């Protein structure tokens, strides 16, 4: 009898790269998805290695990279530049890029040309802000092989129309509009829906009523399929005179229960703590981060 040495069980099997079918399967199993914004190759590698499922090249780069006071000045060329950088650094994570202000609103054709530029740069999905009126554009892109993430609630590209960064969908009428918009976007084929600054109960209801949509919350409570934060916010780097930190943010470099002067976690440790907290449902904490 020949004795073949058994291969040692793998300490940690390499995680396969995320793609849209795998994300849908994970969501259907009830796995919470952890998304973070990312703007360059080095952080893409660090966030990916720390377990972030999805990286978003957000137009929030206007705020945190460029120092602008809104996302409106950000251009398509800048989004493509940062998308390429993130695409070079990541391995397993899924990559979504924001269509910036003014590059998709005129027509589905305009949106397609802009989306193509971002997909060429390495995006695996594009994200666009706006209500049911964008459903036609979403369908146009999806039919042409471009996966789409929609974005409802506080849509920062509309800051001057809204008059500030405020909670959306508070009263019954506004909540119904949001639910109708989400339904239209789901029917148009959006795969993901970011819900920003909406009451937790509404985000939970949209998530439960539209199982074909994977919802990603930011200031939307714990009832969504996943969570997203701006990386600089969850590393405790934002704040100061120009950017009051929203209440939905948690600084993951701080260890809960330790004094403020205690040493903080490293970036990889903080990101791993965020991923773990999203997966086990301990972030967000409705009492602290909910609306
Ligand atoms: N660094 C950063 N983080 C973000 O989350 C972010 C950006 N930049 N830039 C684009 C938008 C702007 N965002 C913001 C900005 C401010 C609030 C804010 O101050 N919110 C109040 C809510 C007030 C209310 O109750 O209506 C809060 O205290 O959370 C929220 C989201 C989210 N996005
Ligand atoms: C906060 C997320 C959802 C975003 O759109 C961005 O970072 O631009
Ligand atoms: Mg954005």
TrEMBL record:
Organism superkingdom: Bacteria
InterPro entries, sorted: Pantoate_hydroxy_MeTrfase, Pyrv/PenolPyrv_kinase-like_dom, Pyrv_kinase-like_dom_sf
Pathway in which this enzyme or protein is active: Cofactor biosynthesis; (R)-pantothenate biosynthesis; (R)-pantoate from 3-methyl-2-oxobutanoate: step 1/2
Cofactor: Mg(2+)
Role this protein plays: Catalyzes the reversible reaction in which hydroxymethyl group from 5,10-methylenetetrahydrofolate is transferred onto alpha-ketoisovalerate to form ketopantoate.
Subunit structure: Homodecamer; pentamer of dimers.
Family of the protein in this entry: Belongs to the PanB family.
Name under which the protein is recorded: 3-methyl-2-oxobutanoate hydroxymethyltransferase
Organism: Ideonella lacteola
Organism ancestry: Bacteria, Pseudomonadati, Pseudomonadota, Betaproteobacteria, Burkholderiales
UniProt gene name: panB
């Amino acid at each position: 009898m020949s004795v073949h040495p058994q291969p040692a069980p793998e300490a940690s099997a390499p995680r396969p790269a995320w793609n849209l079918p795998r994300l849908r399967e994970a969501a259907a199993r009830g796995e919470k998805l952890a998304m973070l914004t990312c703007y360059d190759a080095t952080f893409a590698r660090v966030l990916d290695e720390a377990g972030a499922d999805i990286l978003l090249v957000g137009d929030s780069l206007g705020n945190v990279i460029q120092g602008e006071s809104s996302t409106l000045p950000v251009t398509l060329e800048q989004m493509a530049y940062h998308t390429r950088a993130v695409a070079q650094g990541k391995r397993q994570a899924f990559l979504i890029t924001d269509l910036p202000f003014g590059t998709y609103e005129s027509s589905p054709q305009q949106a397609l040309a802009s989306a193509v530029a971002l997909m060429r740069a390495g995006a695996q999905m594009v994200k666009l802000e706006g209500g049911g009126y964008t459903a036609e554009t979403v369908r146009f892109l999806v039919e042409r092989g471009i996966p789409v993430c929609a974005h409802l609630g506080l849509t920062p590209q509309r800051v001057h129309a809204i008059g500030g960064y405020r909670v959306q969908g508070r009263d019954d009428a506004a909540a119904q509009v949001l639910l109708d918009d989400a339904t239209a976007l789901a029917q148009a084929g959006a795969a993901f829906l970011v819900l920003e600054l909406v009451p937790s109960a509404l985000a939970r209801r949209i998530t439960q009523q539209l199982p074909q949509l994977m919802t990603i919350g930011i200031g939307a409570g714990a009832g969504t399929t996943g969570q997203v934060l701006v990386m600089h916010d969850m590393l405790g780097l934002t704040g100061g005179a120009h950017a009051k930190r929203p209440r939905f943010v948690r600084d993951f470099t701080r260890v809960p229960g330790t004094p403020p002067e205690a040493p903080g976690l490293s970036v990889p440790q903080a990101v791993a703590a965020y991923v773990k907290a999203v997966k086990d449902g301990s972030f967000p904490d409705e009492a602290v981060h909910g609306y």
